[in-house]
Design brief:
Radius of gyration: 19 Å
Shape: elongated
Number of helices: 9
Helix content: over 70%
Structural class: mainly alpha
Oligomer: single chain
Number of strands: 0
Length: 205
Amino acid sequence: MSKPGHESVENDTREAIMEATFRALSKHGYTDLRMRDIGEEMEMTRQVIHYHFDGKHDLMSHFLEYIIDQYEGSVEVDEDAPPREELDARIDQCLFGPEFDDFGHWDRMKVYHELFTHAQNDEEHRAIFNDHYERIRGSITEVVEEGIEQGVFREVDAPRMGQLVTDVIHAARGRKLSLGHDDAPEQARKSIDEFVLDSLHVDAE
């Protein structure tokens, strides 16, 4: 659990620690990562990290939430956008990510997926990943349901559709990062369009 006062960590300090954690993880990996490695990636002293976090595991838990917040909070869609346009935006965000000034999307996904592989042995981190998965699936499901209600999508099992699209996204990212199939995200995007989204439209029946 975080130390008292963690919630009040200044945004600049928190971001500095989290971005330093990105850089350290990318160099050393999760298993070999030490708190001093993170300290070496930031201008502030390492004591700042120890003051706000109870060790490596606590820091990693908040780091995961930081990564997830970057993606969940950066999908921008007009309120009046048609359902298909919103689906496209959400799927593209998951597959290709937002733009970052430093340490790009796939650098961040590499770190994310390394932590993902360790989650099977970590109940707290597994819960964080599960919550994130459910929010992605839920957001896609909700848009599909809205499209059905508006009469632009045909009747389908929206939760299963949301699960299918979410699973394809996760598989494509994993294939690129673990197997080196660099074209996996683009292939997945085309397949989602052709075999899933295009068939949703009423006029496709």
